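Tokens for chain A. Residues wanted.
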């Protein structure tokens, strides 16, 4: 598996679209799914979001940079899940707990962990192998 281009090597527009806009749209779609179908919500918030958090972290050179990217991504993602559900003005199909805003804390923490793991993975992959 080849590594994605490093975040700092991308243009400002690419950084904003990749880190913010994609995360916002995916959060909205996940929030809509939360109001429509429990299984689709769990697929989006589970394996797909986990892969996205790890891959987002892989755009950074180091666990520390990946952690910050993951935390910010998780914060935006969780917030937009709740926004999508609020736009539907419907009850969630899956149990979120009380208060529902706790979802944002969970996505922020999990996003930070996944981002750090992705950044650490990139560092290991970029390290030259001794001959």
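Reply:
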């Amino acid at each position: 598996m080849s590594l994605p281009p490093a975040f700092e090597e991308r243009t400002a527009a690419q950084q904003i679209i990749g880190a913010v806009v994609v995360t916002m749209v995916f959060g909205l779609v996940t929030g809509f799914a939360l109001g429509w179908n429990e299984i689709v919500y769990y697929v989006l918030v589970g394996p797909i979001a986990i892969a996205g958090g790890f891959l987002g972290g892989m755009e950074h050179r180091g666990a520390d940079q990946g952690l910050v990217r993951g935390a910010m991504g998780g914060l935006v993602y969780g917030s937009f899940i709740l926004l999508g559900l609020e736009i539907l003005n419907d009850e969630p199909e899956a149990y979120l707990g009380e208060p529902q805003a706790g979802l944002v804390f969970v996505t922020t923490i999990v996003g930070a962990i996944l981002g750090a793991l992705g950044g650490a993975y990139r560092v290991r992959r970029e390290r030259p192998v001794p001959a």
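Residues 63-88 form the longest helix (26 residues). The helical segments are 12-36, 38-58, 63-88, 102-126.
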